[in-house]
Hints:
The protein is an alpha+beta fold. It is built from seven helices and five strands; from the N terminus they run βααβααββαααβ. It has helices at about 15-25, 30-35, 45-55, 65-70, 90-105, 105-120, 130-150; strands spanning about 1-10, 40-45, 75, 85-90, 155-160. Strands 2-1-5-4-3 form a five-stranded antiparallel beta sheet, with helices on both faces. The radius of gyration is 16 Å and the shape is globular. The termini are close together.
Amino acid sequence: MYFHLRAVPPSALRNSATWFQRLFEDDWDTVRERIGRHREEVLDKLYGDVELLYCGIPPNHASEGPRTHVVLGGRPAFHTDPAMPPFLLLTAAQVSGVADFLESADFDDLWRQARMRLLRPYDTSEVEPEARGLFAATHRDLTAFYARTAEYGDAVVKWLVT
């Protein structure tokens, strides 16, 4: 299970679940190449923890806005199969707001606010340096992805690929 975020020029967007699904059918070599250019980002099954880093839980403590759009935010576009999760769309303006938020966010502050909840499943503080490093790397990757996407004036389509 992976949570994909893909930059898409607004003029290329189609209002079709089939079209959205085709966006995420590329092979891993193609996906890795886009990730390297900051045109796509992939979060593993712990994407909910990354959401917690930015928004808090439960429910999201953050007010609606750029910080709530980083991971799970966006307008839903429903899949043709009701059992499948919806796609999520961020407009170019929303992407720009997320990019500004991430570029100005202090990771240390984000970590301090979410630290206890993020470390709770491990029941030991020995994993903190490694966990913190992974979240810091994810924050850097998301910041680069949204910055590049905003630079191009693109929208973002997201989908939980199972």
